[in-house]
Amino acid sequence: MSNVNLYLRENLSSISVKNINVAPSIAEKKLNNAIKAFGYLGSPSSIIAIFDNTLLGSGKDGILFTGEQLIYRPAFSEPKSIPYALISSVEYVRKPSGSKGDKIEESLSITCRDSSKVYVSGLLNCDYEIFCEIINKTITEFEDYKEEKQLVSIDEMSEALKVSYVKAIINMAYDNDDIIDEKEFAELLLLMTRLNLSKNSRFELRTYMASPNEIVPFEQLIKLIDSECPEGQVKSLHISLTKDLINLFFSTGGTSIQDFDFLKKQREHIKITTPEIDLTVMAIKNDHDMLRDDVTDDQVISSLKALSAKAAAVGTPLAAVYLSGSVVGMSAAGLTSGLATLGMGGMLGLSSMATGIGVAVLIGVGAYAGVRKLTGANELTRFKRRELMLNEVIKQTQSTISLLIEDINFITQKLNDLLKAHSSQDAQVKKLMSLMSQMTSAGSVLTNKSNAAQSSATKIRCARFIDTEKLRSLTRDPTKADLFDFIMSFYEPQNFTIEKDGEAREITKLALKSNYTTKELENLAKAFEAVGYFKVSDVLMGSASDMAGKTKDRLAGLFS
Fold it and tell me: pTM for the complete prediction?
């Protein structure tokens, strides 16, 4: 194994049954507490694990692990950063303790290259011996220590990877019966939308679908995927790919995973275990159950909890299954937002994911919704929350239809150019091409009209003018810090004329820029929701926290 982040992520859970939290399954509140208490200055998405040594689970004492260092913070003491590159040795120590010497005190003795020592002791429910083995392996079998994102959604990965990923699934569609039928085609279109592929990439994939004699071997595609995959993400990517392969198999009439011949043939090339395959099958079933008319919110919640328990038993983050979104048509962001409406914002553990623009809405979305109490006191009915999730499916499907019309127009233009280049004189062909151009142009007009209306509706959910101090108070937590810059990037100083006391005055405000796409505005709207910008309780809490911080600073100044 060449990646220290992956090694630690896969092994640290063995240190303790109760006290270790491994990314991406770290609760946002604990993540924020630990970042502040341990004085960690890096990105929240780079934290691999937190050993919580507090009795109440606050995460403020214990050990914080990244790909470069561990930070040890005993109770009532200052945190100490210990870079792996500076550790020369680690020793597991057992010694008698107590007044009669009838107890055993365990600890780790960490010796640094400058001869200084750090003693790690007093950890609750910790297997020190295994801990020692893990750190020893970390310092002896790895040389490259760096911090990196612990989970990356596929839509954030390279275009080359995404194209190879979809091609691998197209291979399966052809292997099934040598054709791609309308159901398979529709599923592939939805997947391309979820992965946010460019127009040229979509055209390349359509050409690939129309060229069964030029299919790239599956093994070669897997090698391309692995070579383009961010470090430490291959396993999660293979789990996601398996889920999308199985979903396409089921969508075309497959009923039993035992009959999935393509998966059996290619199993050696996919890094996945049988329990992980069972997990993906369970996830697909749960996704489709959410669309059934007779399924209530409570049933959805119950099945998601069962799925989460299965993922924990398998030892696989549930988020890995959903790197490409949900098979029913929700993107990773849409699914997370939908789960938040169900009071389960932390279900996928996506709060510690990367903060790229494409997934900015994932940061803090759980905090926005909170884990709502699912009682009669909630103003939403037992079906209302599920309705909000279904709206995400509708939006994704509408986006797919829009992209389909855009691609038809793109292909028609290419065909027109080709005919012109060859000076075709066939009047019938010219007439048919004219009709095709007319229809696709009309489709583009309707799509633009729909997008304009949707953009206007989405703008209503965005602040026209930004209150910088208000936003700053709402993004004080480390996991929301990047959202401040993300939201502010949509605003610029603009001059306005107002009339006051009969006089016209020029004022300058930070106003929303123009010419943003519907998708960009949707991300902005969700970012506002994530920080609670329009939610009175969150604003008051943010202001109170901000005031408390300023008061603390003033008091510190008085006694310094």
Answer: 0.72
